Fold each of these.
Amino acid sequence: MAGATSIETIELDHVRRFYAEEIRVAWNLHSDSLTEAFASVPREQYLGPGPWLIRGADADLSSPPRATPNADPRHVYHNVSIVIDGSRQLFNGQPGTLGLWIDALQLKPGERVLHLGCATGYYTAIMAQMVGPAGRIRAIEIDPELARRARENLSEIAWAEVREGDGSCGLPEELDAVLINAGVTHPLSNWLDALRLGGRMILPITFSTDQMQNIGKGGVFLITRQQDDYTARLISMVAIYSCAVARDAAMNERVRATLVKGNWFSVRRLRRDAHDPSPACWLHGSDFCLTA
């Protein structure tokens, strides 16, 4: 029996390695430490017991997720979203998509990271491995049950901390990286303030409709703090669960109109100074502006 278990463990290690390398190649990831994290963090331990409901990268969103044949953990090592709570359309997102965002953060050992919207903690664990024991990662989740599960799942990572909350206050300071893992219509000022010089933020800007329920669509931007400014550039398009805070009805309509306008790749800066809208303003808000 012990020998069989050992063989199964070795085989699963090989499956995780192939999964990590496939994501690296297909999504053009640059970080070796991210690839190593995908190869070693056991995704199934963050999903609850199988069989699991999964949805592929190009699946028809009007169709329900399909069930894996059984609880063999090899089923979760593909670029698929996996249902956490189907009644609320909550998923453990596609590794390729999240990997692309984490790769853009260029995490290094010893860095301080904030993960807002951590769900059950899988991608928190990925980033925790990247920054290592000399680093620090705080994960925030608004849902009490998901926060409890994340805290339990991450309990053996001493440098990872999980807090229940909406991320609107009580954030750590001098952060090297922030992953906002939910759709917003605008960044909160304290998120931007928390970034140290050179700090990076992944920011999904989305609009939502009544028909889309809790899912918004839009673009994901990499924001980097400079001496007196913030650079910004589009990373990817996205359909993602909406954030509980950082959503405004008027801004939602502006984001929708901006999506129709297009010209996403013109964005180069995030401005926080007061100024009148101009043709250079791509998405103009009351206290921020994505601009050329």
Amino acid sequence: MPPTDADLDQARRAYAERLRVAARLKSNALVEALARVPREKFLGPGPWQIVDVAVPTGLKYRATPDADPKHVYADVLIAIDASRSLNNGQPSGLASWIDALELRSGERVIHIGCGTGYYTAILAEIVGPTGRVIAIDIDAELAQRAGQNLADYSRVEVWYGDDFPFPPDSADAVFVNAGATHPLPKWLNALVLEGRMLIPLTATGPEGFGSGGMFLLRRTRAGFTAGCLSGVAIYPCIGARDAGLNLDLRMRHGTERQVHSFRRDAHEPDGTCWLHTPYGCFSTLFLGST
């Protein structure tokens, strides 16, 4: 027998509560969003391909036994397109990063690299009917799927491409959901005072994936605080990668916790520059000690 709505509600609630514990989530609104949003809606029809193991040559998948949606309510990576090793991100990791954004009802969020929209829907649930979410993906197929999947969310707008206008002071939070070597100035300028940005800084290898650290930046009157939340392995962010910085990040792998601020003032590189870029500097200095 196919699962009833009550069965799925129960599976989602149990999944959300497991993630609350596993990811040490502080936001009740995030947990409630995880308990409400139907993950299967954003994955396509089952059975689904679940990442079984990561090997040097890529990812290996195993199929769920059937198309029962209860299989997707686990802390696992699930393929969106297994041929490209493109997956719906691991819930505990994404949830912990979203939790760090400290989103509130009514806030405005920009989600870059939205994929098919599952985590965009989570963001939209958190900010509520008075909030707004702009979802962007450079992949036309993914953006189209996200638009269809998010059609019921009037507060969500989906864009295809990388030319979305980012008005200054227009966002309370920016979530870059793909690996960059640096933040783009237009992303930083979009943040309001006390606005937050999640950005994975990654070095890519021949296999195309990138690894590095997930950073949280916060705009203050004195400048940007910055710190590494955790490690990350993620697809690259087209348009936000620099070959030279990619090499620099590869050499700095494992030292991400040294970063305490992001400087936009002009200065010569010195020993406090963890990653000095033409777009700004990730610095070991605490804000105010420049």
